[in-house]
Protein: Peptidoglycan D,D-transpeptidase FtsI family protein
Organism: Levilactobacillus tongjiangensis
Amino acid sequence: MKNFYNRVSNRNQRSSGGPSKSQIPFRLNFLFFIVALLFVALIGQLAYLQVIYGTKFKAEVNQTDTTIETTNVQRGMVYDSNGKVLVGNKAHQAISYTKGVNVLSTDMYKIANRLGTYLTVSTSSLTPRQSIDYYLTDVNRLKAVESKLSFPKGATATQKYDKALSYLQGDSSFKLTKSQKNAAEIFAKMSGAYALSTTYIKDSGVSSQEIAEIGEHLSEMPGIKVGTSWSRNYPNGTSIQSIIGTVSSEKTGLPSDKVNELLAQGYSRNDSVGQSYLEQEYESVLRGTKAEKQVEVAGNNTVTKEVQKYGGQKGDNLQLTINSTFQSKLQSLVKSAESGAGGNSTGTYAVVMNPNTGAVIGMAGVDRNPSTGKVTENALGTINSDIVMGSVVKGAMVSGALMKGVITPTNSTLTDMPITVGGVKKASWFNANGGANMAVNAASALEVSSNSYMMQLAMKEAGFKYSSGAALTMSSKAFDIERGYFNQFGLGVKTGIDLPGESTGLKGSSSRAHIGNALDLAYGNYDAYTVMQVAQYMSTVANGGTRIAPHVVQSIRGTKSDGSLGAVKSTVTPKVLNTIGMTESEKKLVKEGLYDVVHGTNTYKTGAELASISPGISAKTGTAQTYYKGNETVTLSLASYAPSNDPQVVVALAMPNLGVGAEDNNMKLAKSIYAAYWKYVQSTSTLTNPTKATKSGAAQNTNG
């Protein structure tokens, strides 16, 4: 019994924990110790970051990026030779938007809607995609559209947007209201801007009411500004516009084929840039330099400071050699001459040039559609329309023969007779139907426009001995010989004019099978040239043998403080391309022939109608047998200079594809052009002998 009691007592003692030590306080203390260590480590790390790197992190938070914001300036203007404005800048009140840094599309959406309540823009260029992008920028609309669609698990926001976009593109009922379209167009313009770049929301036609209302609420529309834009205008008429060229608009922006090149030069995508002719050729002069503003952007993408670094400078101005009053008259004369041509006539073109400097005083042209009779202005036809000119080239042919040595000033007489080779007969106009043969020298051959003489020169140059009726076995190198001399005068090569896009002319086949055409080439009835080339050729003869590149820009000038034409910054000097290797006696002989075309005594002289022009001129007329759409036509041309004894001006013109039988149209037009020149450009009182040009004077003044 006693033993039993003792066992129970011992069991009770163990259950109550009597002599056993508890493990719980130790474990809790250990955990508290670990937590304390972690707190110490955390506090230490925070102290470390604060003390050691605190300044650095603070600087990173507060650091700013400096960016340059640019603003466009006025483009340089274009003036005529007398200082009249040909191309100016018309100012327009405009609304622009300068995009901030990291601006969200939802922010621009709100601004576009706000601005749209005050400003009306054209929505004609708004695309369906732009309409949908605007519509889905509203978060609620985007969710509403997405609720109608099913998406794969884990679809991204971009994938969901693309599917919503596709859904609306296929929804024929989707349509924006008029006010929404207006806001969508504004939103599209704003979205297309780069950070800190400025784009026009509306660059013209902004009403006073729109200006006032927008001005009152500018603070509510970050980035929106009321400013000025410019567009090209032509206060003295648009006849000169085809020569000046065009400028891209803010809407069209940079030409797609040059966008990378222009961006590298500092242009923005929506900048205006010269697209053609002078506007393109002198882009670096006309563009000016943009205004620059230094913008500091904080780490939170807010603009903290703006400093005007450079106010910008308007582009420099071009002063042309062209007299605008005369240019307008010349264009009118050319158009009038073409309007009366009728038939298959395809155009009329004329160039007036200073033979001593290459300065183009006027260049005019019109194209005509023979089917409709519609006439359109095309002054550039003078440099890019290739025309078979006819006999005007004979001065160059004679000059080449003199340089080749197949004739000399004292031994140049040949018999004008029909040329028969290989069963083909070719003759001059005055003995083509059985007229008498006639002895002519170099000068009289030009006077009567002898085809036979020129063909004989071509055969002599090629070393071929002519025998009537025999086969024409001369080498095809005859083409190269003739063209080589023609090229020296500017026929068949680029003239070097300061306008892009000029033609080199057209060469007929030079193969052995076409050897007979080498004779046609000699009198201008094979290769085709531009009127500008003919003007350069005659200028080379007139000035004594110096081929000078034509130019339409006279000088580059600055702008005065009042906006008027400023001081000359640089002047275009005559550019000599080559000189003709002729002796003074050879030049004299050619000039005598051109003088006799107008003032000679031979019954067959071709320029008798020009003799009434005062001061007297020297000239070469041309008539080429041509074809247009299977119909036989004639092309009339003329190259001339005046006064004969002291050349001051060259007139060259061409009238292609007139009806057979047309006569003297070229000389009638030339008479009108000379009358206009002496009236509007140069007074005859400035000439040494304004009333009469003499044959001896023409011969003696070979250096112009």
Q: What stands out?
A: The longest helix spans residues 24-52. The two ends are 160 Å apart (CA to CA). The CA atoms of residues 254 and 269 lie 6 Å apart. Residues 11-18, 696-704 have pLDDT under 50 and may be disordered.
